[in-house]
């Protein structure tokens, strides 16, 4: 007999993906995956954090990694102009693979001002044009890291709470197929009805008026 499972220790479970041209962001664990739980507005949120930033084998993230993602943290290094230039490519990849996902832009290595080449004002201006929050952080000195995680988690949680929850009977909508498929079916049903009534003398039916205004090439089908 299997042991009974205890109550969950969280209210929400979210997957976060860290991508970008910056060294592994979660430097303290040395792996690509981490779980942590934080509290936002009284809600306990468990985060599954996938850190692919700066790792060569993740240079191009496959759609598998994006699947089920709720929030994406795009990281660049303030000491690398190339990493900042690639932010647009990462954002485009996110839009290609995700429909509804929260995003945030993070400039890492803010603790190294002497080597800085990307100005904070320029990065913030870019983030504003993309309508995404922006942080400068230092994973090494733990500067703004907690604030950044709280921000992206809050965005994801707010999006979930604002999204309409599916009703219990929504699954039944699948029986009719998609709206486009239902529309095609309606058109086909009308086609069959017109064909049938034309063959059986439909001049006294409600379809006769429609038949009279049809283009000639369509009337040929029913002749």
TrEMBL record:
<dbReference type="InterPro" id="IPR050305">
    <property type="entry name" value="Small_GTPase_Rab"/>
</dbReference>
<keyword id="KW-0547">Nucleotide-binding</keyword>
<comment type="similarity">
    <text>Belongs to the small GTPase superfamily. Rab family.</text>
</comment>
<keyword id="KW-0342">GTP-binding</keyword>
<keyword id="KW-0449">Lipoprotein</keyword>
<dbReference type="InterPro" id="IPR001806">
    <property type="entry name" value="Small_GTPase"/>
</dbReference>
<dbReference type="InterPro" id="IPR027417">
    <property type="entry name" value="P-loop_NTPase"/>
</dbReference>
<protein>
    <submittedName>
        <fullName>Ras-related protein Rab-35</fullName>
    </submittedName>
</protein>
<dbReference type="GO" id="GO:0003924">
    <property type="term" value="F:GTPase activity"/>
</dbReference>
<keyword id="KW-0636">Prenylation</keyword>
<dbReference type="InterPro" id="IPR005225">
    <property type="entry name" value="Small_GTP-bd"/>
</dbReference>
<dbReference type="Pfam" id="PF00071">
    <property type="entry name" value="Ras"/>
</dbReference>
<dbReference type="GO" id="GO:0005525">
    <property type="term" value="F:GTP binding"/>
</dbReference>
